[in-house]
């Protein structure tokens, strides 16, 4: 797999989806020696079930462990350190990881209890947990979701889990962006398997999940987070740590020239998921009929950006979306299925950032 590749798979069999992404990326061949120490680094910021939109689904961990075992890797561990306000042990239980640990004999490593050492990180001293620093290959498994301070969070910020609590506190006193960028010059990002199943609208602790039913694969954490901006309707320049990481040589923000590898097509009919009040409030601006999950989720994120900018105020029009609109006419819609409408945004699915620009222009 190349650094400019982005692997995308849709569906609801999350375990198999994780395996397929890892297989397509050729992770086993890249690791090489079967005796190497491999770690899976999920996002367990808090002790909550993944359906909340906060934490990495256990099925992805299960898929990754099975893939590695089937390819002869025995030395596999799951490691994480929750945020300072929560306890990693409780988070392992809440996310269902203890069952995975027991079923496959995989160690759960609580990095909040680990020793650490200080490293030079391109002009900053940063402490890393010893167990995380000692692995040969790290699979970073973030959740694509919003964040109350940094706006988005995915690959780059997920590595905050491999530093000790005292360092997490220091990062916050420094405003997060600069230390997150520097951290990624020393933290491993050998492969990034993104949980884009139902990440939260705008809060790292969950509560407003947006169902997308996707798993993504990247080699480059900067490209990953830049693509996340596209998916959530932000500009890369809205999140300072992404450009900072690019300038430090961690990766590239160039999603326009990325090579997209689609392992399957999205399927319609998942728009009737359980929505929080916040998501319902945005959904009332949509008229969805047989919309695919990623398409509909992108529209929810786009409407949230427009709401943030005060552009939904007084709007009565509903945006049509979904496969039932194929061959139909209408006023305004997003996605290839609404190409017969008076105003329609191309794409299958269109990205949230393009939906934001399209709706801003049409409503201006
Ligand atoms: S444009 Fe239509 S087919 Fe394509 S993702 Fe959206 S709803 Fe699905």
What does this molecule look like?
By secondary structure, this protein is α/β, with parallel strands linked by helices. It has 2 domains: 5-262, Rossmann fold (3-Layer(aba) Sandwich), CATH 3.40.50.11440; 277-362, no CATH class. It contains 14 helices and 16 strands. The protein has helices spanning 14-25, 27-31, 58-70, 88-94, 97-104, 130-133, 155-158, 165-173, 177-183, 221-232, 240-247, 277-283, 293-308, 352-363, and strands at 5-10, 38-42, 76-80, 107-110, 116-120, 125-129, 137-141, 145-147, 151-153, 191-196, 214-218, 259-262, 286-288, 319-321, 332-334, 343-345. Strands 4-3-2-7-10-11-1-12 form an 8-stranded mixed beta sheet, sandwiched between helices. Strands 5-6 form a two-stranded antiparallel ribbon. The model has no long low-confidence stretch (mean pLDDT 94). The structure holds iron/sulfur cluster. Iron/sulfur cluster (SF4) binds at residues 266, 268, 291-292, 295, 322-323, 335-337, 348-349.
């Amino acid at each position: 797999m190349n650094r400019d590749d982005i692997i995308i798979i849709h569906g609801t069999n999350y375990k198999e989806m994780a395996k397929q992404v890892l297989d397509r990326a050729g992770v086993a061949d890249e690791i090489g020696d079967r005796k190497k120490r491999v770690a899976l680094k999920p996002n367990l910021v808090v002790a909550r079930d993944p359906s909340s939109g906060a934490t990495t689904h256990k099925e992805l961990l299960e898929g990754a462990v099975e893939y590695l075992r089937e390819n002869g890797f025995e030395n596999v561990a799951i490691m994480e350190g929750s945020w300072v306000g929560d306890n990693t042990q409780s988070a392992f239980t809440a996310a269902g990881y203890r069952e995975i640990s027991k079923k496959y004999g995989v160690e759960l490593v609580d990095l909040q209890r680990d020793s650490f050492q200080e490293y030079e990180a391109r002009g900053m001293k940063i402490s890393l947990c010893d167990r995380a620093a000692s692995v040969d290959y790290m699979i970073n498994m973030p959740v694509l979701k919003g964040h109350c301070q940094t706006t988005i969070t995915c690959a780059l910020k997920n590595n905050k889990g491999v530093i000790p609590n005292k360092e997490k506190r220091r990062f916050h006193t420094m405003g997060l962006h600069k230390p997150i960028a520097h951290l990624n010059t020393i933290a491993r990002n050998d492969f990034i398997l993104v949980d884009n199943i139902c990440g939260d609208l705008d809060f790292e602790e969950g509560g407003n999940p947006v169902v997308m039913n996707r798993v993504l694969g990247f080699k480059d954490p900067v490209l990953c987070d830049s693509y996340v901006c596209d998916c959530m309707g932000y500009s890369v320049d809205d999140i300072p740590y992404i450009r900072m990481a690019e300038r430090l040589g961690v990766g590239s923000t160039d999603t326009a020239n990325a090579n997209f590898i689609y392992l399957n097509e999205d399927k319609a009919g998942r728009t009737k998921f359980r929505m929080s009040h916040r998501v319902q409030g945005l959904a009332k601006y949509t008229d969805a009929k047989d919309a695919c999950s990623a398409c509909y989720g992108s529209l929810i994120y786009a409407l949230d950006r427009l709401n943030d900018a005060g552009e939904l105020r007084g709007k009565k029009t509903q945006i049509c979306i979904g496969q039932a609109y194929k061959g139909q006419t209408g006023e305004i819609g997003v996605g290839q299925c609404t190409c017969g409408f008076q105003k329609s945004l191309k794409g299958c699915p269109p990205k949230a950032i393009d939906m934001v620009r399209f709706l801003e222009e049409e409503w201006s």
